[in-house]
Amino acid sequence: MSKIIFIDVDGTLVDYENNLPKSAVEAIRLARKNNHKVYICTGRSRAEVYPEIWAIGLDGMIGGNGAYVEDNEKVVEHKLITLEQCKKIVDWLKNRGLEFYLESNNGLFASENFEKVADPVIKKYAAYKGKDDANSMTVRKIFPDMIFNSKNLYRDDLNKISFILNSYDDYLEAKEIFQDLKVGTWGGKGDTALFGDFGVKDLSKSRGIEILLKYLNVDKSETISFGDSKWDIDMFKFCAVSVCVGDGSDDAKAAATFVTDNVMDDGIYKAFKKLKLI
Questions:
Q1: For the chain, what is the largest distance between any 2 Cα atoms, rounded to a whole number of angstroms?
Q2: In this predicted model, what pLDDT tens digit does every residue of 241-271 receive, in sequence order?
Q3: Residue 190 and residue 230: Cα distance in Å, rounded?
Q4: What is the Cα–Cα distance from 214 to 201, expressed in whole angstroms?
Q5: Which helix (H) or strand (E) holds 160?
Q6: Is 275 strand, coil or helix?
Q7: DSSP tag of 219
Q8: Strands 181-186 and 195-200, how do they pair?
């Protein structure tokens, strides 16, 4: 029977330097030839899904950690941060001296000093992920199409807003003030946080999957999910089968049905073979 496959992007489909294994491309193309459907399920917005990923051949995406659901270029659902919420967040971040970027399907828009402040944070992020060349990582390598010095930071097309944490207190304060939004953290080793983020309240990867399944009229017993971090655990719990890559976090491995090899050691391909998708 045909399966519906959901693959996280960062740390799962690609490594944390955006390297895409040829074996993963081959696995996805073969699976689709076998009438399985493949979607990426990611924290990225559509603007961050670069041409090489779409060139693999995909049936659609769930983006912004569940804010955006797309099937074959048709928008199934799109939940946005309101303009009023955006204004309040941007003003609060500026007043607190925190650099940030706005995440929309139309682009990534950085605050005035984001690149300068974020470069050492990105290096630390890469080091946490075990990259030998972490010192060469930059904002422009991670976000090649980011728009800098944008004059328009009050927007009504946002899936998320991410910001650099000066301390964990920034996250705690944001969570207290913005109770009408989903406030989280990301980009660290274990529970260490480098970034905070704002999103639409009550959204998740699993909810995005549920919306898509209803649209497709498919039961969740036919679902398989792939991920690497604690942000994937909710979809692991929702889907019938879940797979964590070998270089994923311990909590994600514990939540998965099984663990495959590392991203760059053909982990996706080997799991597809094991599951008889190809």
A1: 55
A2: 999 999 999 999 999 999 999 999 999 999 9
A3: 9
A4: 21
A5: strand 158-164
A6: coil
A7: -
A8: antiparallel
Q: Beta strand pairing status for 37-41 and 60-63?
A: parallel
How many Å apart are CA 276 and CA 95, to the nearest integer?
54
**What does the alpha-carbon distance between residue 141 and residue 192 come to, in Å, rounded to a whole number?**
23
Q: What is the C-alpha separation between 99 and 244, in angstroms, rounded? A: 32
How many whole angstroms separate alpha carbon 112 and alpha carbon 99? 8
CB atoms within 10 A of CB 189: 14
Using the Cα atoms of residue 216, residue 226, residue 197 and residue 21 in order, give the sign of their dihedral: negative
Residues 15, 17, 19: CA angle, nearest 5 degrees: 60
Q: How far is CA 243 from the centre of its chain?
A: 16
Task: Give yes or no for a contact between 252 and 237, defined as CB atoms under 8 angstroms apart.
Answer: no
Backbone CA torsion sign across 11, 15, 17, 19: negative
Distance between CA 88 and CA 158 in Å, rounded? 13
Q: Which amino acid is residue 165, in one-letter code?
A: L
Residue entry with tokens 């051949």: 57
Measure Cα distances from 155 to 5, 16, 46, 179 in Å. 33, 28, 16, 20
3-class secondary structure, 14? strand
Q: At 171, which amino acid appears?
A: Y
CA angle 179, 152, 65 (to 5 degrees): 45
SS3 158: strand
- The pTM assigned to this predicted structure is 0.93
Q: Which residue bears the tokens 């999957």?
A: 209
Segments of the chain scoring below 70 in pLDDT? 129-132, 188-192
pLDDT of residue 132: 67
CA distance linking residue 99 with residue 109, whole number of Å: 11
**Residues 156-174, buried b or exposed e (16+ Cβ, 10 A)?**
ebbbbbbbbbeeeebbeeb
